[in-house]
Structures are given as C-alpha cells and as structure tokens.
Amino acid sequence: MIYLHKQLHFFIANNFITNHMPQSLETLNSRFGLTNTLFFANHAAGLPVAEIQTPLARAHVALHGAHVLAWQPAGQQPVIWVSQAARYEPGQAVRGGVPVCWPWFGARDGLPAHGFVRTRLWHMRETSLDADGQVRLRLGISDDASTRALWNHAFDLELIVTVGQTLTMALVTRNTGTQAFTLTDALHTYFGVADIAQTTVRGLEGCTYLDKVQNFAECSQTGVVSFSAETDRVYVNTSAECVIDDRAGQRQIHVAKQGSTSTVVWNPWSEREKSIADMAAGEHRRMLCVETCNAGPDKITLAAQGIHTLTARISVA
Ligand code: TA6
To answer: What is the pLDDT of residues 255-266, one digit of tens each?
Structure first.
C-alpha cells in the first residue's frame, strides 16, 4: 500500500514537472537539441527560442506561446512577419509571427483577448529530424489552477510544427476532463508582403463574412479580397485554401487548412495602426494576417476525452 502510494506520488510529481515547471536552456539543449539543426537560445527577456536551420528552411519557435516567430524556406524572403516594435515579455503577446488563439478567438469581457495560451510558457515535448529533412517540434500546455481560474476545464493542448519547404502547424486540443466544452481557436498567422496595396487574397470569393469594421455586419465577398482601408473580417463556413498574391513581392503564398471552417483576414491600415502600441508607423504596408480559425459562429464542441486538430499548411510559389 505504502509502495503504491509512493509510486502514485512519484507519477503525479513527475507529470507535474513535465507539464508545468519551466525548462532550463541546458535541459532544452540536452534533451531536444539536434546537432547542426536545432538549438535553443535565450532571446529578449530571457525567453527560450528553438532556432532551426536546415538545407530546406530556417525557423524560430518560442516556448512563450508556442509562437512561431520566423519561417524562411530556402531561396525565399522571410514569409512570416514580426513587428519591429514587438514586445517579448512574459504575459505579453508578440505582435507578429503565429499567435495561438485558444480557447477563444477575439475579445471576451474581462478576460484576455484571444485566450490565454499565447501569453504563457509552453513545454517542449519532442523534436525530431525526419528522413526527408523536415524538423518536427511538439510543444504542449495543459490546465493548472491559473488556467482553470480563467476557463474551468481540463485540457491538454499541443502544437506540432513541421519546418521544411512547407510550414505545417497542427494545433491539437484534447478534452482531458469529464464534461464537454466548446471552444474557438486560431493560428493567427502574420505574413510579410512587399506592398499591401498590391496584394490580394484568393479563395474566399462568394463567402459570407462578418465585418468587424462595420460592427459585425454580415456581408458577401465579391471577387478576390483587396486592401485599401482597415480590413477585419471573419469569413465563416469556409474550408477553402487561400492564396495571397503578393504582386510587388512577386510571389504567392498558399494557406491550406484542415479542421477549420473560418478564415480571418486582417490589416489594421494607417489609422488603427496608430492605436497599436507594439506596431511601428507604416508597418501595416508590409503585413497581412490570413488566419486559420474556427471563429464567430463556427465553434468546436469536444466531448469528454475528445480530440480536435486545427491544421495550417503554408507554402510559397
Ligand atoms: O484577427 C483579427 C483581430 O481579432 C483584430 O480584430 C485585431 O484586433 C487583431 O486580431 C489583433 O489582436 P491583438 O489582441 O493581438 O491586438
């Protein structure tokens, strides 16, 4: 009996350490570093970042928020955009990269915007180099007293990032509790473009969208999406692949997805940009968010022990 009790105590303590204690740089490098391919370094404010460099691509992934900060396939300009004014601080969301919005997308009265996992430290669970030269990272976070104070559910969340000529991000939600829960989520991807005024997004023609700039008015998309003012739209009931046609940059970025029925398109334009403290003047010209989501009315309900995966697959032509 005493032996069993000790075993149980050991299991719980070990599990708690694996899921909740910060991992030191030394531990990260010794357990998860990959020779000549992946190492961990402390970026600003001591936040550990996985730096990946292979013949296929370069990428940075922070443990803070499981935030993909950079991805640049070989022979291309960087694809993911981060503001020069971004703040890398515990409790802050980074302006740019790929914020993980979960378990809700958007604002909620008195609660953090876009949920609480983008501002928390995640755990590195696994790294590997595949036979085809792609690097895979698996990061995780699970509930504790502080998450339950904001959202009273038991969960385990993983982000599996695959870095190669294509960037794949799979956000896996597991309901580890005994009650069903409902969530919305997003891989809120910021893309770099050479000139927003010459950029369009294809794939959403004919879709219904909720226009945040017009107090969530329901509208219908005619033709491709183009940009000449603040744009903040939740396209609903769409699983379509989108293509960002960056004419000035002479490239097309493909955003394919699975497990997602909404796409958000956002550019703050010049006026709104001024109210965003962590965006520098004029930066809206060089960025565009095309977000792989389940948002607005497109909610996910997960039964006890259920699993849902939201996947974005990004490539450049
Ligand atoms: O995804 C678009 C959006 O919800 C916009 O409404 C805009 O506020 C943006 O996200 C950024 O939100 P954040 O909380 O990161 O400032």
So the answer is: 999 999 999 999
